[in-house]
Amino acid sequence: MTNSFDAIVVGAGVVGASCAHYLVEAGLSVAVVDRGSVAAGTTGAGEGNILVSDKEPGPELDLALLSQRLWTELIDVIGPAIELEPKGGLAVGYEQHTFDHLRAFATEQAACGVVATPVTGADLLELEPNLNPEVAGGVFYPQDMQTQPMLAAAHLIARGVRMGRITLHTNANVVAIPRDARGAVTGVETTTQTLQAPLVVNAAGTWGGEIAALAGVNVPILPRRGFILVTEPLPVIVNRKVYSAEYVANVASDDAALQTAAVVEGTHSGTILIGASRERVGFDRTLDWTVVQRLAQQALQLFPRLAQASLLRTYGGFRPYCPDHLPVIGPDARVPGLMHACGHEGAGVGLSAATGFLIAQAAIGVSPLLSLAPFAAERFDAHHVAVVHA
Amino acid sequence: MPIMWRSFMPNLPVNSVHIRIDGNDVAVRPGISVAAALLTEGYRSWRTTRGQQQPRGIFCGIGACFDCLVILNGQPNVRACMTTVEPGDEIATQEGTGHV
What we know:
The complex is a heterodimer of chains A (390) and B (100).
Chain A: E1 7-10, H1 14-25, E2 30-33, E3 49-50, H2 59-78, E4 89-93, H3 96-110, E5 117-119, H4 121-127, E6 137-141, E7 145-146, H5 149-162, E8 166-169, E9 174-176, E10 187-190, E11 194-196, E12 200-202, H6 208-214, E13 222-231, E14 241-244, H7 246-251, E15 259-266, E16 272-278, H8 289-302, E17 311-321, E18 328-331, E19 338-342, H9 348-363
Parallel strand pairs in A: 1-2, 1-12, 2-8, 4-14, 12-19
Antiparallel strand pairs in A: 3-7, 4-6, 5-6, 9-10, 10-11, 13-16, 13-17, 14-15, 15-16, 18-19
Chain B: H1 3-8, E1 17-21, E2 24-28, H2 34-40, E3 47-48, E4 55-56, E5 69-72, E6 75-79, E7 90-92, E8 94-95
Parallel strand pairs in B: 1-7, 3-8
Antiparallel strand pairs in B: 1-2, 3-4, 5-6, 5-7
């Protein structure tokens, strides 16, 4: 087996899988390297959100809108196995003033290409018959989707493997990123072998900072812990991805303390997933019952019928965030041949398609569909001067 | 219960816990699991799957696989292997999610 590739992707989560997929589509041979197995990190600890609804106007929303389009194309390429459901999202406000705020937010989003429809009263209950009737109103976002993220990552990689264009190395911990005399990367060294490529894509998610450090650069990515509750399989009582208005505020928050806001959705298998908590506690995986209770209470407030449901289990993981809550995507100007595709916080599944697409464009020297300037890794350097591309 | 076995295990509890399985009165030994009670009564499966209505019974026996789900006292999706029988328990076989 050859150890030489056009590109090496570090990380077999959904972002790494998408990068590998689009690099293959661009004609490159790719090695995907992960210290664990496919989707063993943050991808396996998420809900599979593909959302435009929770993004405020700006570079992340542009990325989300591109990604949403790409996901609808990906379903034709990978097939129904990834359980992609274009079910739409419904953000609701209990009080009139939170609903008013949601509507104003939706108007701003609509100017950027988001489809958003305010709904109240009978229309709201037609969308979600089991929703708490005391909710003041909601905004329906038909572009929001859901996928099973582990299946998505696995099938994206498997397709490339079947084509003979992706080589998958699992249980391979990257311990060094060698560079040549001019400072360009030459590949990666794992605990067992040396793989060569003129391009290394850092898709290590929450651990992206460690991979960047191996290449000698700073990419400040930190973990934000999130738990999700799983109910027993139930008949369909939640049609859309339904969340309370507070979720949007929590996503953008800089508060280190625990934040919870109900995000409720059904899955293909009948279980209902209840998120979403966010707290900054480092890499501590200990289950916190306060989080479980709060999430359950907030879900019950949205869907009183869930009172009859039992929980099967909880799961959780670490959302990789940067200080400005934007991901790091694109070539690293400090190290030739190094690209980053990490730091997507809780939106990595949704943003993965556009991330992989833009990485592939950069890899073959095509002008990117979206400017990568807001996502540049160097933006965190003290002396960095932002370059605005026309 | 075979006589030989009982003669070698004089302290084996008698079938003193009265429960109902799908409406039939049965008596089982105290302290056994709902799954054990069902197996003792000759059941090999007591639930059908949600998608294909395939039969399911005990599989892992240690609470991990969620295959042995049963309706216990009106509550669906109870793990039969992890639940001890109590006097008066109403056990019912489950179809699909068990919820209406």
